[in-house]
Amino acid sequence: MTRTPRLAQGIGQYVTLIALLALLLLMLAPFGLVVINAFKTPTEYASNGPISLPGGLYLQGLVDFWNRVDFTNKLVNSTLISLSVAILAVVVSLLNAFALGIGRVRGRVLFLIFFMVASTLPHESLAYPLYYFAKFVKLYDTQFSIILIFTVIQSAFGTYLLSSVFSTFPREMIEAATVDGCNKLQLLVRIVAPVSLPSLSVLFTFFFIWTWNEFFLPLIMLISNSKQTVPLAIAILQGQHNMDATTTSASALLGILPCILFFLLFQRTLTRGITAGAIK
What is the DSSP string of 205-267? Predict the structure, then answer.
């Protein structure tokens, strides 16, 4: 009698695994096509189509695109902006959430509602006021303007998320640290921040990736070619010049590859952060 339920359970697990693998292949198929076509010659693409495998390792498309957009400069710009936003947004989120989640300031609920609404605003609605604000304070067409804007945008979400985490922070630990003579700064630096490090690492990873992929606001705020980011340079180049499919695939591969490498580097940290949050 017990074999039938176990057999059915085993079959169900295999079916679930096969379905998840099929879904994974479906999600990776576009990226696989990009990789395949990035290493094809234009002649191979025209003769055999986009699904065929390349006859060799053709790197000229990658080299041509790299030189055409000065990809080294765009890579430095995106890395500088994304890292700056990720670090600053995590710090601002931590300070705000400490005041709201642990400090229990007055009007806490209203502040949380404000941050929640701010994190859901579409960027299109922010373009007009941000453009004129940057013009007014002489920050238009500067990388600092993008860093400032996305620090505020990302920290709105980070504040809302961390505040919910800090609201469940053990009060006994806070009271014990206070009795031992910790002031608020010491409580934040020595107790709250180390305990919350997994959540902070998750936010850091997400903030970096989200900022790296941003396109609309940098398109408005950065008009100088030397200050543009990777997604912006790729889109503008494709609009200005007719590129063959292999060079387009090479540009897409170079645009997404740094982001994937960053994710792989922080994958273990991200997994630990999510697991720690689930257990907590």
Answer: HHHHHHHHT--HHHHHH--SGGG--HHHHHHHHHHHS---HHHHHHHHHHHHHHHHHHHHHTH
End-to-end CA distance of the chain: 39
How open is the CA angle 188-144-88, to the nearest 5 degrees?
A: 15
pTM of the full structure = 0.84
> Is 260 within a domain?
no
Q: Are 101 and 167 in contact (CB under 8 A)?
A: yes
Residue 192: enclosing H or E segment and its boundaries? none
- For residue 5 the two structure tokens come to 């339920």
Count the domains in the chain: 2
For residue 21, give its domain range: 3-48
**DSSP character at residue 169:** S
Query: Are 163 and 96 spatial neighbours (Cβ–Cβ below 8 Å)?
Result: yes
Run means of pLDDT, 10 residues per run, the chain, 280 residues: 64 86 89 87 83 82 85 93 96 91 77 84 89 93 95 92 82 81 84 86 90 92 91 72 73 84 74 52
228: left (phi over 0), alpha (psi -120 to 50) or beta: beta
Among the listed residues 155, 265, 172, the one whose alpha carbon sits nearest the alpha carbon of residue 211 = 155
Angle ∠(104,105,107) on CA atoms, nearest 5: 110
Same domain, 153 and 86: yes
Dist CA 146 CA 144 (whole Å): 5
